[in-house]
Amino acid sequence: MSRKEVCAQYGVNAGNLSVKLSRLQVISQTIARMYPCQYDRMDCPVSKHSLASDLDRLP
User: Fold this and answer.
1) For residues 47 and 39, is the Cβ–Cβ distance under 8 A?
2) What's the whole-model pTM score?
3) What is the residue-wise DSSP string for the chain?
4) Distance CA 59, CA 48 (A)
5) pLDDT at 8
6) What's the CA gap between 11 and 5, in Å, rounded?
7) Which pLDDT score, from 0 to 100, does residue 57 have?
8) Amino acid 58: pLDDT
9) In this model, does residue 54 exceed pLDDT 60?
10) How many CB atoms lie within 10 A of CB 7?
11) Model confidence over 7-48: pLDDT tens digits?
């Protein structure tokens, strides 16, 4: 979806969306530095495998 479409669909200002996406990227990079393991490894606490199992448990 384009930024314009997302903003129209959710009633969000394009500038605010950009700021929030930038903040999320900083948070993501910080977490990646905290957990320098490989994303595909089963023993990594933030691997796609453990994250997927966490999502399966959400209501």
Assistant:
1) yes
2) 0.52
3) --HHHHHHHHT--HHHHHHHHHHHHHHHHHHHHH--S-TT-TT-TTSHHHHHHHHHT--
4) 19
5) 92
6) 10
7) 63
8) 57
9) no
10) 17
11) 999 999 999 988 988 899 989 888 877 766 655 666 666 665
Structure tokens at 7: 């903003």
Closest by Cα among 32, 58, 26, 27 to 47? 32
Tokens (6 digits) for 11? 């009633």
Angle between helices 14-34 and 3-10 (to 10 degrees): 110
Distance between CA atoms of residues 19 and 12, nearest Å:
12
Answer whether 45's CB lies under 8 Å from 35's CB. yes
